[in-house]
Amino acid sequence: MKPQNVDWIHTFTGKKFRPLTPDPELIDVRDVAHALATQSRFGGHTSKFYSVAEHSVRVSLICPGRDALWGLLHDASEAYLKDMASPIKYAPGVEFYLAAERALMAAVAVKFSLPANEPESVRRADAVMLHTEARDLFPPGSHVEWLNERMAQPNRISPLNWQAAEAWFLERFRFLERRRAKESAA
Question: Where are the beta strands (DSSP E) in the chain?
């Protein structure tokens, strides 16, 4: 049953956020970190719990310094919209979701003073993590149709619990913001 006249969600920090008409001022990194830390990658179909927050930190660590914050926040829209499995997300008729996701990522870019378009280095880092996650988080021999071991990171993933993933995300965010402030001051 759809609630009457409700076009907002309650966030972890208590905000009323409208994901279809996002206000950059209401985007809060604590909401992003918490929501992504409690969401599983791959719709939860991994051998162990593995959060989107942990994935995001790992993507950020692969990105060159100038793109690391974009890498950390590349899935921030999922904190407010959730994600869809790729076969659904990119199927005909789902353009509304993709448009909402783009608008929300544009608001994230404004909020955190990021370039409007996701850098290519972030897409590459995301692909590297996809191959690493496929190798480390699914049963051996599965996903051979899209796993390229040569693209995977050498170190294996030992997934964190959601609390540790949330703390790591916020720690990485604070580090990147301090580094950006130092670079701006120089």
Answer: 9-10, 16-17
C-alpha–C-alpha distance, residues 22 and 101, integer Å:
10
67: which residues sit within 8 A by CB, 6+ positions away? 119, 121, 122
Parse the chain into domains and list their residue ranges.
Answer: 25-185
Interacting residues of 141 by C-beta distance below 8 A, sequence separation 6+: none
Could you tell me the CATH superfamily of domain 25-185?
A: Hypothetical protein af1432 (1.10.3210.10)
C-alpha–C-alpha distance, residues 108 and 112, integer Å: 6
Q: Classify residue 42 by its DSSP letter.
A: G
Judged by DSSP in three states, 119 sits in coil
Tens place of pLDDT for every residue, the chain, 186 residues? 666 778 999 999 999 999 999 999 999 999 999 999 999 999 999 999 999 999 999 999 999 999 999 999 999 999 999 988 888 888 898 899 999 999 999 999 999 999 999 999 999 999 999 999 999 999 887 776 778 889 999 999 999 999 999 999 999 999 999 999 999 998
